[in-house]
């Protein structure tokens, strides 16, 4: 029933516009409530204190179902946490009252809650932060099985909508530095927590444990006695409760991660948190701050700008967001974990025992990285974690391309593995589906792809195809190249046969010089491409005229093991043409540089304007799952089909195809190629001046970078490079390694989810290691 009680029409924006006298009259007429009346601050609704009660007049657009959900939730919490004073509704359902313009307002009378808001209470400390965590956990327990259709609604304060809300508010943020910060931090959250959000438990949450809504008994008290305002109640991720509580508590705190840790400690005293929930905590605090900035900017703009009140309240949000931008996710996570927690899934055996058993069972040819080998038990994003929980920023693993243990890739693998995994001699839709998706990423002339299990298998198959297509036997490779671990590939990898345990170059292999314009044979930028091309052509000619004849020229668009080299512009395209002119096929080894790592393009050879006949793929293609591929032209594929079957027991199995598809999905959906371009550019921009100052060179494209260290600008300094690698792992928890024929190039090729903040941390650590205490 709707009552007409002569109320003024709401404002244009839908906010009710009752006077205190109107409210007083309404309380009496509707509820028989008498008492001194006073208006309380509220943004979209109107609230009036009437004696021991509060008259709540909702914004005209409020969905009555949402109000019903709020009232039901208050009653549920009151029953579960009797010690907590709450705004209990006096009646079962809101009253409907028509205004003079005919629009309907929903009016409720609730209990006034005594207490001092945290915002007005004395200096906070860990005890109060733990109490906040306990409150968040009590709410979770109280609302564990609470369901209400009115809680399923779209509101801007739903953390799951955070990214969209930020995007809408961004154009209104006037200060360009603040806008960039909000944009970068939101992007960082999308990459770190974004993939994890779908697996977080959901339920109904109060969703606004801010310091005006949480009440303590007195100004110095710690015990929480009351809770107000269920107006943001929504069905969303349950972690929203402790995250929002912590976000307000840590504003301007000297140690924001410490505050978050205390809130979570309190929370965990009642409700356990899963690994994934814990991982999302700091990223979602960042997101909440970004949402706050974006919403304030939009509100200010809508009101015509210049809202001094908003600016004051936003100061802490902005300062805290800037402070948290400098916090490393991995290190923070280590502080948030329970102190007594066994690390990893199961408690691993001691590292020393593993090392001994490994040496005994695997033989000494298997090497370990770093003087003090790492015992890594789990990974996520651009981070690896050791058995003690220490986080390492991974700047070198180009296999975990879309981030270590990406949940979508892991889920695709697990789902398909649970259904079927078998060889390619049965019809299965995933093989052609993956083939089509992969070939979409190549233009003409590429029409065919074969799936194998590693980069080595891909190059091995490419060699066989090249031989079948040309009738030749010999190959030309670049000095310093590595193409794989099979007998044939080791024989055509100068990186191996010229190294320890090596042997003389076989007669079927010819070397062209490494096209290195920094320390290579030709350095004049005006002529280097031509000189290197002459040398490549000469090697092709030697292979063509030697017994067996030319089959193939293998090259990476940017030689990786050769030292993260960027060849002079124009060399690769002309070298591939020269290989064809000499009767061979051109093979682009994209095992390291492919799949968007170079940022500007999907493939390294594209960035060079070169067109190979065969492309080999590995490492990133399966994000850690053993997968490889050979992509080629129809002509080459047909020449290879000479009657002998190509069978590869594991190559192209449904699980591998599912993984390959998931990797492509993530690359595309998360825009990782463009991200690699942005972060890589910024990183190279900071590495270049550093390299100049320390007498070296920084180079590369996207997130395929190298920092070459020399003694005097020319002679290699492998000792210093090795020292930097050791210092960074020990002191900074940053993983790097060296490459190049002289082992003096620091290679930087992290998972593509590497953030701007990660890049800044790497540069600072390198500056310290190379300049401040070299
Ligand atoms: N080609 C290049 C350029 C590589 O770097 C590697 C591995 N380091 C391979 C091929 C061989 O790949 P896999 O180890 O997967 O066999």
Which features would summarize this protein structure in a list?
6-stranded mixed beta sheet, alpha+beta, binds 4'-deoxy-4'-aminopyridoxal-5'-phosphate, 16% strand, 24 helices, 774 residues, 7-stranded mixed beta sheet
Descriptive notes:
This protein has 774 residues and is α+β, with helices and mostly antiparallel strands. Helix content is 41%, strand content 16%. The strands form six sheets. It has a seven-stranded mixed sheet, with helices on both faces. α19 (604-607) links the parallel β19 and β20. α23 (718-732) packs across α24 (756-772). The termini are far apart. The relative contact order is 0.08. The mean pLDDT is 93.
Per-chain topology:
Elements: E1 2-7, H1 20-31, E2 37-40, E3 46-50, E4 53-57, H2 64-80, E5 95-99, E6 104-111, E7 116-117, H3 126-142, H4 162-169, H5 176-192, E8 202-205, E9 214-216, E10 224-227, E11 234-237, H6 240-249, H7 256-268, H8 275-302, H9 308-325, H10 329-336, H11 351-362, E12 376-380, E13 383-386, E14 391-394, H12 407-419, H13 430-440, E15 446-452, H14 455-470, E16 474-478, H15 487-491, H16 494-497, E17 509-512, H17 528-545, E18 550-555, H18 571-581, E19 585-589, H19 604-607, E20 614-617, E21 628-633, H20 634-640, H21 654-669, H22 672-693, E22 696-701, E23 704-709, H23 718-732, E24 734-735, E25 737-739, E26 745-748, H24 756-772
Parallel strand pairs: 1-5, 14-24, 16-17, 16-18, 18-19, 19-20
Antiparallel strand pairs: 2-3, 3-4, 4-6, 5-6, 7-9, 8-11, 9-10, 12-13, 13-14, 15-21, 20-21, 22-23, 23-26, 25-26
Helix pairs in contact: 2-3, 3-6, 3-7, 4-8, 5-8, 5-9, 6-7, 6-8, 8-9, 8-10, 12-21, 13-21, 14-20, 17-18, 22-24, 23-24
The structure holds 4'-deoxy-4'-aminopyridoxal-5'-phosphate.
């Amino acid at each position: 029933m709707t009552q007409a009680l002569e109320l003024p029409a709401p404002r244009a924006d839908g906010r009710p516009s009752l006077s205190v006298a109107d409210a007083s009259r309404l309380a009496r007429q509707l509820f028989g409530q008498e008492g001194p009346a006073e208006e309380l601050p509220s943004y979209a609704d109107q609230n009036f204190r009437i004696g021991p009660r509060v008259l709540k007049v909702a914004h005209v657009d409020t969905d009555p179902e949402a109000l019903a959900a709020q009232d039901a939730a208050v009653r549920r919490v009151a029953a579960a946490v009797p010690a907590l004073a709450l705004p209990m509704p006096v009646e079962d359902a809101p009253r409907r009252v028509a205004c003079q313009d005919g629009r309907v307002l929903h009016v409720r009378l609730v209990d006034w809650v005594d207490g001092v808001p945290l915002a007005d209470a004395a200096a906070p400390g860990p005890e109060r932060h733990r109490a906040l965590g306990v409150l968040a956990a009590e709410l979770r327990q109280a609302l564990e099985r609470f369901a209400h259709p009115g809680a399923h609604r779209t509101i801007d304060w739903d953390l799951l909508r955070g990214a969209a809300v930020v995007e809408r508010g961004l154009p209104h943020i006037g200060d360009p530095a603040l806008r960039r910060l909000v944009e970068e931090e939101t992007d960082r959250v999308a990459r770190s927590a974004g993939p994890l959000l779908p697996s977080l438990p959901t339920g109904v949450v109060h969703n606004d444990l801010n310091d005006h809504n949480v009440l303590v008994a007195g100004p110095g008290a710690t015990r929480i006695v009351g809770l107000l305002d269920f107006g943001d109640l929504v069905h969303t991720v349950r972690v929203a409760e402790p995250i929002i509580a912590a976000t307000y508590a840590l504003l301007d705190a000297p140690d924001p991660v410490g505050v978050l840790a205390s809130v979570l400690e309190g929370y965990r005293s009642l409700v356990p948190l899963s690994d994934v929930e814990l991982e999302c905590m700091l990223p979602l605090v960042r997101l909440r701050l970004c949402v706050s900035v974006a919403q304030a900017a939009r509100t200010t703009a809508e009101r015509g700008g210049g809202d001094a009140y908003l600016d004051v309240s936003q100061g802490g949000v902005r300062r805290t967001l800037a402070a948290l931008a400098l916090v490393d996710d991995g290190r923070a996570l280590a502080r948030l974990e329970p102190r007594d927690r066994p690390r990893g899934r199961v408690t691993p055996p001691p590292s020393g025992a593993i090392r001994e058993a490994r040496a005994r069972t695997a033989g000494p040819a298997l090497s370990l990285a770093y003087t003090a080998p790492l015992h890594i038990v789990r990974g996520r994003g651009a981070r690896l974690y050791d058995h003690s929980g220490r986080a390492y920023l991974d700047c070198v693993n180009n296999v975990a391309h879309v981030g270590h243990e990406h949940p979508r890739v892991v889920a695709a693998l697990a789902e398909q593995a649970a259904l079927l995994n078998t060889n390619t001699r049965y019809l299965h839709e995933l093989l052609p589906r993956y083939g089509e998706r992969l070939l979409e990423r190549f233009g003409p002339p590429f029409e065919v792809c074969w799936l194998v299990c590693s980069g080595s298998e891909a190059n091995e198959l490419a060699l066989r195809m090249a031989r079948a297509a040309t009738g030749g036997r010999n190959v030309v490779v670049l000095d310093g190249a590595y193409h794989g671990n099979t007998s044939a590939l080791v024989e055509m990898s100068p990186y191996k046969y010229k190294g320890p345990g090596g042997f003389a170059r076989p007669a079927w292999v010819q070397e062209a010089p490494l096209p290195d314009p920094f320390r290579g044979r030709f350095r004049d930028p005006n002529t280097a491409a031509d000189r290197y091309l002459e040398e490549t052509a000469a090697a092709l000619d030697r292979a063509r005229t030697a017994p067996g004849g030319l089959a193939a020229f293998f090259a990476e668009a940017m030689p990786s093991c050769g030292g993260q080299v960027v060849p002079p512009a124009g060399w690769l395209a002309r070298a591939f043409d020269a290989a064809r002119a000499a009767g061979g096929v051109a093979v682009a080894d994209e095992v390291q540089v492919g799949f968007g790592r170079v940022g500007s393009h999907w493939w390294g050879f594209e960035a060079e304007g070169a067109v190979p006949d065969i492309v080999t793929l590995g490492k990133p293609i399966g994000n850690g799952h053993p997968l490889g591929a050979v992509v080629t032209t129809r002509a080459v594929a047909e020449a290879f089909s000479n009657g002998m079957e190509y069978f590869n027991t594991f190559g192209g199995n449904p699980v591998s195809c599912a993984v390959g598809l998931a990797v492509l999905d993530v690359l595309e959906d998360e825009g990782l190629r463009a991200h690699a371009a942005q972060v890589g550019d910024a990183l190279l921009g900071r590495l270049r001046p550093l390299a100049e100052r320390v007498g070296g060179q920084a180079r590369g494209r996207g997130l395929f970078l190298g920092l070459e260290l020399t003694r005097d600008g020319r002679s290699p300094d492998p000792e210093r490079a090795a020292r930097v690698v050791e210092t960074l792992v020990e002191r900074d928890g940053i993983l790097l390694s060296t490459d190049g024929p002289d082992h003096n190039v620091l290679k930087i090729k992290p998972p593509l989810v590497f953030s701007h903040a990660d890049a800044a941390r790497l540069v600072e650590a390198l500056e310290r290691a190379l300049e401040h205490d070299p």
